[in-house]
Amino acid sequence: MDQIIIGYDAKRAFCNGTGLGNYSRGVIAGAVKSGEVEALLYTPYAKSRYEDLAKNLPHTRVKMPQGWWKCAPSLWRTLAKAQDVEKDGVQVYHGLSQELPLGLPQKVVKMVTVHDLIAWRYPQYFSPFDRAIYRKKMRHACRVADVVVAISEQTKQDLVELMDVPDEKIKVVYQTCDEMFWKVDNTSLNIEAAHKKYHLPDKYIICVGTIEERKNQLCTIRALHRLPEEIELVIVGRPRGEYGQSVMKEANGRIHIVTNADFADFPALYGGALASVYISRFEGFGIPVLESMCCDTPVVTSGVSSMPEAGGDAALYANPDDDAAVAEHLLRLATDEGFQEERIAKGRIQKMRFSPERVAQDMIEVYRSFFDVDY
User: DSSP characters for 287-319?
Assistant: First the structure.
């Protein structure tokens, strides 16, 4: 069986530590480890921590700008890369972060992953310039793509409703979380070391995510005031804008904000918590929900957008503005050991919908669908 030659927009894989970077690395690794894909990773540059990414993966090569294009890497990514794609014999080009370069050859199958349409649903969260750029790139990508990969049914619904992308053009392929979360067990988590490193309280609830209005951390802080005083809140994320500053002002006493956590410590941070809380107003998927379940940490999240897809019947849900309901869920998880164990057991089942193997296989099937080959 011949391998499919796939070109990936790998800038995020080489430059982003979390979020789109984790998604990109996960898709690439899952594809090449299947043995069915040869990957060409197109990136304008690479941060030092990821420069050896391809060396750890089979059937993988890195493609970077050459000649005078080294002086204009961003322009190469948008324009000249398409010429290299044709020369390299790429059969499928997959844009992993909601955009595709201009001028891709007609014979190359074009795919793009769309994570969310927050720039449409919540335009107030973006500057006018950023909003215009995001929308322009995504419209172009969805127009020229042969298939649009949505990371959730929510994102597919938004693509149809807000961008008029034909339903039949969209394939839902869920995402997974970083592979380290799938290696978690009771012996691998050094919770005590994490407690000491980040000066954590004995009993805490964890909230992971950038501190911004959409993530809605103020609701969690209000819920905290309804809980017993020995329970504290640990927010792992950097403050952004005026909202971040307003949260920082309330971050005293029972509230600890960790802005410098090493990503490798995240499983221990989750694992040491009584519960995880993620009351975001809108997400394309909601990775912290899955990460929590992988660490056997029961999770309270929003009953809106894609969070019920991620949490299934394992998570507990609340309206993003109902801090009383959030507090009620958290209090039960913190005080009812049997109920907590029940949620953990459900999480172990639910998380398998998004295992790296299952997600990789679903993506491989999309790649296969373009070729009249008997696999």
Answer: HHHHHHHHTT--EEEESSTTHHHHHTTTSEEE-
Contacts of 208 (CB under 8 A, 6+ apart): 235, 236, 237, 266, 269, 270, 276, 278, 288, 291
Q: What tokens were used for 294? A: 């992988």
- Do 4-176+355-368 and 179-354 have matching folds? yes
> What is the fold of 4-176+355-368?
Rossmann fold (3.40.50)
For domain 179-354, give the CATH number. 3.40.50.2000
Instruction: Provide the token pair at 331.
Output: 């209090």
Residue with tokens 């790649």: 367
Domains of the chain by residue range: 4-176+355-368, 179-354
Higher local confidence (pLDDT), 253 or 47:
47
Residue pLDDT, tens place only, 137-173: 999 999 999 999 999 999 999 999 999 999 999 999 9
pTM: 0.94
Distance from C-alpha of 207 to C-alpha of 204, rounded to nearest angstrom: 10
Q: Determine the Cα–Cα distance for residues 65 and 198; give it in Å rounded to an integer.
A: 41
Average pLDDT, the chain: 93
pLDDT one-digit tens code per residue, 220-233: 999 999 999 999 99
